[in-house]
Request: fold
Amino acid sequence: MVHAAELIQRKRDGRELAADELRDLVLEYVGGTVPDYQMAAFCMAVYFRGLSSAETFALTEAMIRSGATIDLHAALGRTVVDKHSTGGVGDKTSLAVGPIVAACGVPFGKMSGRGLGHTGGTLDKLESIPGFRVELATDDFVAQVRDVGLAIIGQSADLVPADKLLYALRDVTATVENVSLIASSIMSKKIAAGADAIVLDVKVGDGAFMKTIDAARELAHEMLALGERAGRRVVCVLTDMDQPLGHAVGNAVEIREVIETLRGFGPADFTELVVEASAHLLVLSDLGVGDADARALAQASIADGGAFAMYERWIRAQGGDPRADALPVAAVVRTITAPEEGHVQALGAIAIGNAALQLGAGRATKEDAIDHAVGVRCLKKRGDYVRHGEPLAEVHARDPASAERAGGDVLGAYTIGANAPHARPIVLETIG
Ligand code: URA
Reply:
């Protein structure tokens, strides 16, 4: 049996642990012989002392070994791609990237999580589509990636059980915000889910885990190193999360925006990120294309209807109704107007995320139910010029009282002033 107290003490004192010690600690924690209180103390020691690259890799390997793994490459005989985001407000990128990449002939297989707090989860967004099934058996997941070219499902319970336990523990012990722990949590799930090539979208700013570009770079480098050591090809894009992505924040409202984007009418920032992430995946795939051709292919799949046709095929394959008209609609839609004339200088991502959460679009605790119809549409974004009384945003609410409350919060998220802010691109940096 592992001497958990001794490992905690060594980490507390800033010393390096061996790979087999970390492996035993994780596997015995999952097996129930190391209790939560010792693992919590270990996480706090890591929070203050950090992990070396070798320790982070050992922790990631141990987490992967705690459960089953999938080998998509062997099952398809092809390079399979995946995309992951560290979480942001209005972030529906994977839902548009998957159909684009698959329409270009590259298989896309993703396992995804639910949202907690002000950032929404991909699964919650998908569940706003009537009939859509997020729970598929692993064999059905693999078969759908092979036969349709695209599947996005809930994280299978037998993959990386160590992360499920550890993440819940970190959530209640103030130990989430550590680069090594975040990197090993994300990469263990990505590696176990079996894709060969992964684009990681590291969000930076007010609405993200990583508040500064330096912190985002550090996380990106950690995840790249873990991917390379596991034989996966990884590219990280660092992207702006000081304001919500696109216009829509919620569930059904975000799915509508995905449909508009796949039809070529999406918001500029969201479309740019979707095309950029898709192009990186096409370059990493087995198509053998370079950057410029990959971008052209991604854009052509939108222009020629291929990406939207793939979206419809994918949604039907998982039991859903792909029509925009089938999505739930909120009972009350209130327009929020500009109280003065000027440039939108800032639009707080976290404030909009919290307004959507209060409306019922997200969950503050794991047990909360979600209202798929509600949310916010930010019609004006940073840099836009507005006249007094012009619509700034729409609040989609279940009743007038919650619309009223959210309206005040949404207005409070906007800073309007005389000067235009500096332009800030959606993709801040690419690493890898
Ligand atoms: N997302 C994850 O999957 N794990 C973390 O630790 C943080 C964000």
